Request: fold
Amino acid sequence: MRVLLVDDEHELVCALAERLGFRGVRADYAVSAEQALELARTTAYDIAVLDVKMPGMGGLELHQRLRELQPDLPAVFLTGHGSELDFAAGAARGEAYLVKPVGIEVLLETFARIAGPWDGQGGRQP
Amino acid sequence: MTTDLDWRTLGPAGLEYFGRMCAGVSHELKNSLAMINENAGLMQDLAALAQRGQPLEPQRLAQGMERIARHVERANAVLGSLNRFAHLPDVPRRPVELREEVALALALHRRQAAQAQVELTLAPGGDVSLSTRPFLLAAALDLCLGALLAAGPGAVAVAVAPSAAGGEVVFAGGAPQAAPPRGPEADALLAALGAQCVQDGGALRLALAHLPATY
Reply:
């Protein structure tokens, strides 16, 4: 499984990428929408994990732009906000909407629900 | 002169303002907790790998601990700002150090500014004592900052200076189309503070007067 993580908080996203790596998920990360689009131009992803609120382009708009490059790319939205409006927008547009801080097991369960189980070596289970 | 008067002056916008500030703080705290959570988890992972025989670099542990400590400090500062904000209405009119009030407003708008890609900095300078209504002053600063953030990305230097009537706050830089806040609610708020907000040579200038005890 290959995942794209996007959050403007570098220390969050790089730690999360490393932890996912320990669990067999290949995770690339970006700290801006522009970086994420650059990565998505050259690499196919199974899931995008997107922070809803980022400077400039937020996660909801970024998902639309990513889908222009990878039309079937599902999204998990992460947010520090918990408003009803945010929830409605995120839940309508993504496969999951999780409020920070998110336990890594919850994230992995969400990945499995969306993309199916993987082999722990970075690939999908046959 | 009561706290109730502050709320009546602000009208429905007052609750919206209070909620917006609290939402910004909660977002900052959530982010800090998420970073603490992730970096603590990373260290747990590294410890588990070490138990299975993988070499553990002390540098990695030190880095993780440093990140956690920094975010605890950041969250504590955010909570400090929230606490100061929550106590602004306690005494409706009192002397304040204007620079401290501006610093608090900038801290409370940090996340909103980042979202709007506006860099806010407090210019160096001395303090200015001002007799005013602190909660309304904070709301007026919010109005000015809201106008600047809505105008678009840029760098804004905020300066505090004394004036004959009391003090002034100058917001220089940022998008050129930033307009002074206008409308019945803004006008009522500024009048209650004896304040004026004008555009002056590309900057927003909030002029504030000392309020007499009977105000």
About this structure: The longest helix of chain B spans residues 12-51. The longest strand of chain B covers residues 154-162. The mean pLDDT of chain B is 90.
